[in-house]
Prior knowledge:
By secondary structure, the protein is α+β, with helices and mostly antiparallel strands. The chain has 8 helices and 5 strands.
Amino acid sequence: xxxxxxxRQGELQAEADxxxxxxxxxxxxxxxxxxxxxxxxxxxxxxxxxxxxxVACPSLDVDAVVGVAARLARHERVRVVQFRKDEGHxxxxxxxxxxxxxxxxxxxxxxxxxxxxxxxxxxxxxxQPDLGHVRALPERITPEARAAILLxxxxxxxxxxxxxxxxxxxxxxRTPVDYDRWRVTHGQ
Length: 188
């Protein structure tokens, strides 16, 4: 099963790169700041068609982000574009996350799977957890840890990926059953 999960991860990784290229996200998002791929598509830990990008911006500009949303909405393979404002009183977790603007996309190329893309625009990148994760985690992901993470994520697709990463990298969890126990002992 691990070989199949690793093969599928590689396929999803290549498809994620193709989606980002087809949408022209590197160029489009660079006009607003510095786009950084985060999450499973940055870490080589993909089990579902999902892309996460955080754009470190000099300032939050609603008009500019809505302009990006409008351009993406016109793309023939984009079905949904969602905008959300998480700044000021709309930021419900200001101690955990900086103010930000969000775009959610649904993308499909032909008969393939529907892709989800989450794009965050933040002006305090040092406070954005996913940017810290993408810097700190790669050196900790050994082949054994990668296999365990993929197995757990595949078996428990509804759980937060970062919790799976923590359980494997910090506490040595290696199986879905061990992960279930870990969740109980960590108040999950």
